[in-house]
Amino acid sequence: TGSGKTTSLAAFLNEINETKSVHVVTLEDPVEYVHSQKKATFNQRELGADFDAFASGLRAALRQAPKVVLVGEMRDRETVEIGLSAAETGHLVVSTLHTVDAGQTINRIVGMFDQEEEKQIRIRLADTVRWIVCQRLLPKVGGGRVAAFEIMGSNLRVKDTILHGESEGKTYYEIIEGSQPFGMMTFDQCITDHYKNDLITEETAMGYASRKAIIGRAIDTIKSERGEKTTSIEDLAIDDEYGKEQGERGFFKE
């Protein structure tokens, strides 16, 4: 809530509207942006007025032969199952979940199902997920807010991790971090860019970081390039996550 995802979804649908001659059905709670007819044909439906639940609304929407379906929120396993079935039959399904990053999005969906169903759900997710985009709004220097994104696409490493789960050295974070040339980025990479471009303060960068140690090192590198004073050894605080990581690699041993 308050992350700007509704506005981003509206912009995405507007791009489709301006470039694609397709049928789009939206299921929303409530309808906040009304899309006029451009190239695409839109049917916008509102929870409570046009359908009683996202699952039943999605079933009805698929009978209208849409190419694109927006589901306002994946609130339960039934809606997720219908959405997966729609994606498996060639529909572009766009939806939202209340999660903090791309990895948690996958884990949240898997967690909606019983343990004996996990393997099959992971197979279906690996086959259908194309992009996961996470968004936060950060306080901007000079006032207002600026969006920070985490973007995870689908490649062989992502598919394998969805299928088998995360492991040491193969987390979603590390896969995204190493796939920036292919259009992916972690929140920390985006936050670093915003700090480098003077859009946010150091305090904001550290406050919204996923891994504070990584952001701290990135900020010091940027400061060094600018000829500014970097973090002094007296002020340096290693967060628990980074300390644990280095300990596991053999540092800080007695």
CATH topology annotation of the largest domain: Rossmann fold
CATH class of the largest domain: Alpha Beta
Task: Round the Cα radius of gyration to an integer and report it.
Answer: 21 Å
Superfamily (CATH H level) name of the largest domain: P-loop containing nucleotide triphosphate hydrolases
Structural commentary:
There is one protein chain. The chain is an alpha/beta fold and 254 residues long. The chain has two domains: 1-98, 3-Layer(aba) Sandwich (Rossmann fold), CATH 3.40.50.300; 122-254, 3-Layer(aba) Sandwich (Rossmann fold), CATH 3.40.50. The chain has helices at 5-19, 54-62, 77-88, 102-111, 118-128, 156-164, 172-177, 187-196, 202-207, 212-226, 240-248, and strands spanning 23-28, 41-46, 68-71, 92-95, 132-139, 145-152. The chain is globular.
Write a concise synopsis of the structure shown.
This protein is an alpha/beta fold. It has helices at residues 5-19, 54-62, 77-88, 102-111, 118-128, 156-164, 172-177, 187-196, 202-207, 212-226, 240-248, and strands at 23-28, 41-46, 68-71, 92-95, 132-139, 145-152.
Secondary-structure topology with pairs:
Elements: H1 5-19, E1 23-28, E2 41-46, H2 54-62, E3 68-71, H3 77-88, E4 92-95, H4 102-111, H5 118-128, E5 132-139, E6 145-152, H6 156-164, H7 172-177, H8 187-196, H9 202-207, H10 212-226, H11 240-248
Parallel strand pairs: 1-2, 1-3, 3-4
Antiparallel strand pairs: 5-6
